[in-house]
Amino acid sequence: MLLLQAILLLLALPSRGQDVPVDEPGVPSLPPKGACTGWIAGIPGHPGHNGPPGRDGRDGTPGEKGEKGDPGLTGPKGDTGEIGVTGAEGPRGFPGNPGRKGEPGEGAYVHRSAFSVGLETRVTISNVPIRFTKIFYNQQNHYDSTTGKFHCNIPGLYYFSYHITVYMKDVKVSLFKKDKAVLFTFDQYQDKNVDQASGSVLLHLEVGDQVWLQVYGEGEHNGLYADNVNDSTFTGFLLYHDID
Ligand SMILES: [Ca+2]
Ligand SMILES: [Ca+2]
């Protein structure tokens, strides 16, 4: 070991010729610092410890812009927006197909009331309702042939008329409404001269009102007549029913 160090020392020593400073023009030769002439260099020391880390350097310049990334995930559905303004009215459409035929209404049947009747034989009794038993029309049966009275079932305005054949006796006949004579007809019979007596009237009736013909007055005025070739008739019908 010592031998090796000695060899290294000898190699490190400058040779005499080399060590002598050569005076170069303009460059003064300098003696070794703080050393005396003829100094001998020592053995190199061991390498020092690493110094503390230096301070962080300055921020570098921004790099170039990167490439565009992938699209993100779809977000949640948003709230329903407000209702928009109503648009303008569209053009008129084509006419539709005709509808089906409707069912028959009830009104026409409900508001029907009519009768037309006649005598079958001459009248022999006075001061009672005359019974017309020859039925020309009595569809609704509002006329009662057993009593000779018409019974109002529909309130409204009614038309009544009678045409009486007068034979053998005078005729005094009244049209009664609710036990009160409201129309009078008088015809005098002349021997061998058949006559006709008639009357007509419009009456407003309420439901339940009754209308009939009856011989009135004292005496024999029941010359109402009928046979196969002579009729005496009594007719009535609803003209207008009352509006509720
Ligand atoms: Ca007469
Ligand atoms: Ca006559």
- At the fold tier of CATH, the topology name of the domain at 114-241 is Jelly Rolls
Mean pLDDT: 85
Order of helices and strands: HHHEEEEEEEEEE
Ligand inventory: calcium ion
Judged by helices, strands and strand pairing, the structural class is mainly beta
Strand content: 25-35%
Query: What's the helix count?
Result: 3
Give the helix proportion (percent range): under 10%
Please report the total strand number as a whole number.
10
Uncertain residue ranges = 14-28
What spatial form do the alpha-carbon principal axes imply? rod-shaped
Using the 3D structure, state the CATH architecture of the domain at 114-241.
Sandwich
Topology:
Elements: H1 2-12, H2 16-19, H3 107-110, E1 114-118, E2 134-137, E3 143-144, E4 149-151, E5 156-177, E6 180-187, E7 195-205, E8 210-215, E9 222-225, E10 233-241
Antiparallel strand pairs: 1-2, 1-10, 3-4, 4-8, 5-6, 5-7, 5-8, 5-9, 5-10
This protein binds calcium ion (2 copies).
